[in-house]
Specification:
The structure is a single chain. By secondary structure, the protein is mainly α. It contains two helices and no strands. The protein is rod-shaped and about 60 Å long. It starts with a helix and ends with a helix.
């Protein structure tokens, strides 16, 4: 297997990881939005601790996503790919 093929394989793995992280972040955003929406649930019934934990998870997922995006861009440059 050539170096280019290995780089393309790594790029594919990273793009799958980016998709997984994006979907996870979308799910977390939806859950947080529902958990703290005063139109849906009374303020005194909100599980703020759970929403805070989900926000922490969202922050971590975003950091992972930024790292994956950086690696993807580097590989794409090295491979001469655009877009």
């Amino acid at each position: 297997m050539s170096e280019r093929d290995q780089m393309l394989g790594r790029l594919s793995v990273l793009e799958q990881e980016r998709h997984r992280l994006t979907m996870r972040m979308c799910g977390l955003c939806g859950a947080i939005r529902q958990a703290i929406n005063p139109t849906l649930i009374e303020v005194y019934e909100m599980d703020i601790a759970m929403a805070a934990q989900q926000m922490d998870d969202l922050v971590m997922a975003q950091a992972e996503l930024m790292g994956a995006n950086s690696k993807i861009e580097r590989l794409r440059r090295e491979l001469g790919l655009h877009g």
